[in-house]
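Why run this: before we spend reagent on co-expression, it is cheaper to look at a predicted model of the complex and decide which construct boundaries make sense. The entries below are exactly what would go into the expression plan.
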Amino acid sequence: MDYAALAELLFPHIDKTPDYYETLYPARQLSPGAKVTRLGPSPTGFIHLGNLYVAFVNERLAHQSGGVFFLRIEDTDEKREVEGAVEVIISSLEYFDIRFDEGVTVNGEIGEYGPYYQRQRGSIYQCFAKELVKKGLAYPCFCSEEDLQAIRDKQEKAGENPGYYGAFAKCRNLDPDEIERNIQDGKPFVLRFRSNGDPSRSFQIVDAIRGPLTMPENFQDVVLLKQNGIPTYHFAHVVDDHLMRTTHVVRGEEWLSSLPIHVALFKALDWPLPIYCHTTVLMKMENGNKRKLSKRKDPELSLNYYRSQGYHPKAVREYLLTIINSNYEEWRLANPDSPMEEFELTIEKMSSSGTLFDLDKLNDVSKEVLVRIPDEELYDFMLSWAKAYRPELAPLFTEKKDLLLRILAIDRHGEKPRKDLVYCEQIFDYFSYFFDDYFQVEDDYPEEVDREDIKPILESYINSYNHGDDRNQWFEKIRVLAAELDYAAKPKDFKKNPELYKGHVGHVSTVIRIALMGRASSPDLWEIQQIMGEEQTLNRINKAIAAL
Ligand code: GLU
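The model came back. Tokens follow.
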């Protein structure tokens, strides 16, 4: 068959040659070792932790090597597209400090290798499709859904591999006249790859995360262009990553099984392969078993979860680094004060079997990260979180800025800072008793204290209360008060001779704590009273007495 004539017949409107695009998108002028990476999300409206994980690896690899990180929107599937999804992708990633150098932005596209929306690249794909037809490596397929079903049925009966290939590929060797007739009749067609792979042969490839892999050759005549001329993922990936001069393709494990197709396409087009890095899926522990994080079951898969709960982006980044690179925690211990960006992420140290994502661990990391964030910065962060996710709190935060700053400073400075702030929702809950509208009695008075003693405790507390007392004077008064009511003034006396006392000073101060804060445990009581002020302190005690 005259393939050149066929190519002309199929793509009469394509007048550019591959050389044209090779010149239009020249090799990038970067220093040796600089990596060019990309993120290729589909605008489906759902952006998840897996996307962030992959984005972060790509971003680090590019930026720590002086390379380029770009955003390409893979919008070839119109049916799955959701309006506003691109903005969601960009702003969600930006929240976590993932910034692109090139590609799609909220203000249009930047960079010399665009367009960066795949749907706008139709004529580029078709140019290379035409080239493959010319080389005899692609052909039009006019099969209908019914034809394809008939092939599947036949294969199933014969126990053969499913798919469009070899002798089952009806359109692989169509008569040129028939093709011409079909085209003239306006019959729709997809363009298929003419594979010369053999399922019994395998090839070797090195995945930078997984090491050397042996994979079966692709033998399927996969679809390159759909009936509307829009490429499949396979073809778009190969053409785009070649022309955009991507050096490292970091993508999810779900693409590993189609790697043989991609390798075959790069070969057919005579292009060098990028370095492939297939990440592992994120798993979670459930009842002692690892399972994949699921969109349906696990709200923490969605990035919106972290934003709405008010996780600080630095905490999430830091945690991600611990699961991306096994040596990160060691580095952090040795460099407690260095910005995490100084850590050099290495592909070789990435896990090649299911990565465990653990919310508790994230919370622990977050505690360490938040302790290093200055009060004022944390306040600003909480305010912006409130504005976005708890608008009813924003005026309170603005009005009570000084109070909040004092609250945030409680026990966070000094030799042994308290590490109990995790994320905004939790922080607000943790300190909500400072605000009358949010104060609630959550715990019961301690069992060790007789019910009849509660009122006398609170009354003598209020009678002897002097807001100007320092911590020692204040506590001395509680000791006296406890002793008067037959509670040990020192816990150790109680431990030695429990039969001599009703309880000890700690139980008595828990009564006060519950009256003041509604909770049995809290940071230092004296300090909290100092922050609350005399009036609110006395009001709370009086209210607790009245409620008895
Ligand atoms: N559009 C693909 C996805 O959203 C991109 C995969 C890739 O990075 O190549 O999964």
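Residues 49-64 form the longest helix (16 residues). The radius of gyration is 33 Å. Bring this page to Monday's planning discussion.
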